[in-house]
Input
Amino acid sequence: MKKHTILIGVLLAVLLSANRLDAKIILPKVIGHNMVLQRHKAVTIWGEAGRGERVSVSFAGQKQRTQADDSGHWEVKLKPMVASVKGRDMVIKGSNTIVLHNILVGEVWLCSGQSNMEYAMRKNGKLFDKVKGTHPAEDDLKTANNPNIRIFLVRRKYMAPDSTHQGWNTAAGTPLRDFSAAGYFCAKELYAKLHVPIGMISSAVPGSRIEPWIEKKQLAVAPRLKNDSVLKPLIVDGGDPGKFYETMISPVIPYTLSGFFWYQGESACFLNETIRYAYKFKTLINSWRADWKSDTLPFYFVQIAPYAYSAAKDVRPHTTENLPEFWESQALALKLPHTGMAVITDLVDSVADLHPGYKWEVGRRLALLALNKTYGMTNIVCNGPMYNGIKIVRDKIEVGFTNTGSGLASRDGKPLTWFSIAGADGKFYPADAIIRNNKVVVTSPLVKHPVAVRFAWNEAAQSNFVNKEGLPAAPFRSDNPWEKLFE
Output
């Protein structure tokens, strides 16, 4: 009986082996017709085939060869290429031949997060007739026709390989309706300045916490602060660790990218997360970079918008300062290299709306970060004023800033709003703030000996404090307890 069982096992192994040897080449969903390949980098093309199968990939005058490993996985790297708007074919040969059509070479980005990143283009229509500022927002659902902007929408249940090799589309018509508005307008701005094909991959889920976007094992870390105190392991917070990473990020690794755009955090703010979110965010950034084998990949993110969390019906109590504390935790990610933050405190019509409009401006501001920091267009101002220390002068506090652009300003010409000041007792009072020598001087008759200043330290804060390029100042407090502890 034992010999019989062994014989059956051997026969099954032989049959399975034979099937693997006869297997056809299979490509991941993200590699298909109409895709954009990253310029100026070695481009990874991969898939599955029979064990030991020889595979070749031909594109743009190159032919790279490899052999599938024992698990059937194969991978090649195309040599770096210059941008090209010419649609060309890629031929992948093994026991079968696959021809992918209309492929461009340019810049590729991945945008991810929760509902405000997922917020689809079709939801913007009602907002185009009340544009804030001078942005020439037109209804791109009707007018978009640029074949050099391509989009790929990651859908949780439809990422399995298939024989159609469909998934990438020109950013127009029906495919654009379901695509991230912030992602599309970011791509549109990048194209307008770079004049090369842009590929945007959107992978976002409404209501998602940050934990599902991080590989589960990465959250086992117990962060250590600079004062040597240790936080509980990040994984104890739950939140379905790795759920969307496995289904919506892993399937596009290692597609060659220029970098990442991220818009998420509302779910964490509802949970009153601060420093723990900062470490989860750091873990996500570092682990994604490790997945793509580049610790210099740019990571640009949106600081979430003003919202009345204190009025929300939630099991956890909120005050009007919980959101500013969360803004602070997001901003700690700027300590990591190759990061940038888009501030959007001015893009809200009502603090009762968790999904504010003006996604075209959100996308533009993300693009500004990339244009300045990734593409070297340093003449483009990409941020509003950011806190850079204080100097106490008798009964006044002078506040310094970076990212002043061509100068500090008031958006409406009126006195600056949402500044407050405190003495040694820690009680903050509304303060007068004036611009002087590209600094802000803050005073209050109620505080004779000030020691600390805060700006926009309220969930409803929509200040008029900007640089002359119109970009809003980031909220801050000079008495930040985490600034010297986070690492």
